[in-house]
């Protein structure tokens, strides 16, 4: 007889929707541990701009997949899935409830469904593609991807050169689009009954939350955090430092943008990110959506109670 499935809670939604606070509360109520599902929080030194949990919050609830690599180290969705699955094993061994919390949809899909690892890196091919991007612009590279893999081009932004280059590399080396390779297969997570809840605030409430978080990040010292990263020798062109918030902070530090313009830009781009995140998660049929955290909390508690009922 197969062992019973263990419950796994995933909390998703757009940026600034309240996922982290909900995860903390549920973890404390249910004896859980949090596995971060955020593509910025894996980087050491990127604390304020990634809204990383505070030291006090980490004392209250164990967190995983934070501060995993330095900003100049590569980190992929496949690596995230490998490390997150190891964390799930550790959490289960302690008899605790795992809560996967964050808004990076690709990471969640890699964890739950598995992800095509792909061929090994071809440095010569990558160099030629990077040279093409530098000579003709990132838009040209993205249009090339759209010709061979429209599905991948539709979900990868032209500015995300790392993922565009990888998608083209996979196509050149295998003759098949990366989107075809990445469809769910035999690598799906086994042994868990996953409950996915999503937070979907009203537009006005989300905008207010984004504005509040942006002011808070700047007030907590985002500019000083970026100055420290640059002083340690990290290039502003690194992928983590091109993320929303960090890119604007770099521009302020370099004298290329005023703090007021940076704040407005962060808010605008964060709202665009929220829209992209909702588009991604809307295609995930298993997500149960709630307009505010308390309704999601009650739904999770009810689902867990049902799991434990004879």
Q: What structural category do the secondary elements indicate?
A: alpha/beta
Outline the biggest β-sheet: 6 strands, parallel
Strand percentage: 5-15%
Topology, number of strands: 6
Describe the fold and architecture.
With 310 residues, the protein is α/β, with parallel strands linked by helices. It folds into two domains: 6-115 and 184-308, Rossmann fold (3-Layer(aba) Sandwich), CATH 3.40.50; 123-181, Histone, subunit A, CATH 1.10.20.140. It contains 14 helices and six strands. It has a six-stranded parallel sheet with strand order 3-2-4-1-5-6, sandwiched between helices. Strand 2 (32-36), helix 2 and strand 3 form a beta-alpha-beta unit. Helix 5 (123-136) crosses helix 6. The longest helix has 24 residues, at 259-282. The relative contact order is 0.16.
